[in-house]
Amino acid sequence: MLTEELQRQADNFLMKTYTRLPLSISRGRGCVVYDHEGRDYLDCVGGIAVNVLGHGHPDLVAGLEHQVRQLIHTSNLYYTEPQVLLAQALVEHSFAQKVFFCNSGAEANEAAIKLARRYAIQQVGADRHEIITMVNSFHGRTLATMTATGQAKIHEGFGPLPVGFRYAKLNDLSSLEQILNEQTAAIMVEPIQAEGGVVVADADFLKQLRTLCTERQILLIFDEVQTGMGRTGTLFAYEQFGVQPDIMTLAKGLGGGIPIGACLATDEVATAFGPGVHASTFGGNPLACTAALIVLRVLLENGELARSRVKGDYLAKGLAELQSRIALVQQVRGLGLLQGLELSIPGQHVVLDCLTRRVLINCTMDHVLRFVPPLIIAQSEIDQLLTVLSDVLRKRQLSQM
Ligand SMILES: Cc1ncc(COP(=O)(O)O)c(C=O)c1O
Fold first, then answer.
1. I need a surface site. Which of 155, 168, 276, 369 has the fewest CB within 10 A?
2. Mean pLDDT of all residues in 273-296
3. CA of 83 to the centre of ligand 1 (A)
4. What class is the 59-300 domain?
5. Which residues are identified as catalytic?
6. What is the C-alpha to C-alpha distance for residues 296 and 300, in angstroms, rounded to an integer?
7. CATH of the domain spanning 3-56+304-400, picked from 3.80.10.10, 3.40.50.800, 3.90.1150.10, 3.40.50.10540
8. Which pLDDT does position 299 carry in this prediction?
9. pTM score, two decimals?
10. Closest by alpha carbon to 219, among 160, 285, 265?
């Protein structure tokens, strides 16, 4: 189907939950995707921080082809090797000792919220059910996780919302201390608020949270749905802040494009989940776990993670250079290959200008351009991105004068 026809049919049959760009993608290779007319685009969105190995990575394709022939799905009533091997690999490379698998970021956070509440209620008492999250956070779209999300626009029209959520300001301990109380079960935070405009948490703030949580028997949850799986230059972002959570959630990059989420916890906290307490039909199915095992192997054993660090620094330097010469650029923020460029104008025009130049980028919080390319992006592709951005921003700047 050609792009225009596809767009018409989408209008006819899909609920209008997304504002889509005028592009339909039919295939991809590496960091490049192709539309239905065969035109190529440099993909610096990567399925919004999902396609960490790019498109069509040979190891992922071969491994999935093999697994499809072996076994696509079975039930969690039985054991499967990929699920156990993946849990073992995640445990070996993180603070955690136990893993629960699901299918998305929202579900991983839903599991984290349930686990934290159940643990706190069992360990401390029935009143301990509140979760504190941050203003401008993003944790998902299920009823509990959208309530956890500290953005009024996401809550609108869905009341009554689940009770037991309060919001503090990121990097502001006193705002948190004001709402902390005897009912606080957990504090949930993204090391970088990615949907919230690529805002990096202060290491000191996270350390203070850790101390406070330990002293008051409160659980610390890191939502690493977007920052995990090498996105920030280390396998998990928390490694760079010198702070370990009690629970961590993953999704997005975990399966390199195959849907999978995970909720990781310490042994002690994981005891709150016993048989029949929480479940997911598809959670940790053999196909998804095979994908995640391959992603981990390529990142860690093939050295892609180490290479992505160098490329993240290169991109950050290039963006800082743009800031030094283009007044529209207010700030550059981020870690590794999660970078944001705050503009003084709405970013969506720039996204469309870049699309015309066949480069895909994304905008969040109206004014922040977000760059989350595949971790395998080549330096020459980063140069291509920077050249197009520079042209587009300079033209926008001139048109503002
Ligand atoms: C930090 C964070 N948590 C949770 C989610 C929700 O993930 P999903 O869309 O897979 O449910 C997202 C999605 O953008 C996210 O960035």
1. 276
2. 98
3. 22
4. alpha beta
5. 138, 223, 252
6. 6
7. 3.90.1150.10
8. 98
9. 0.98
10. 265
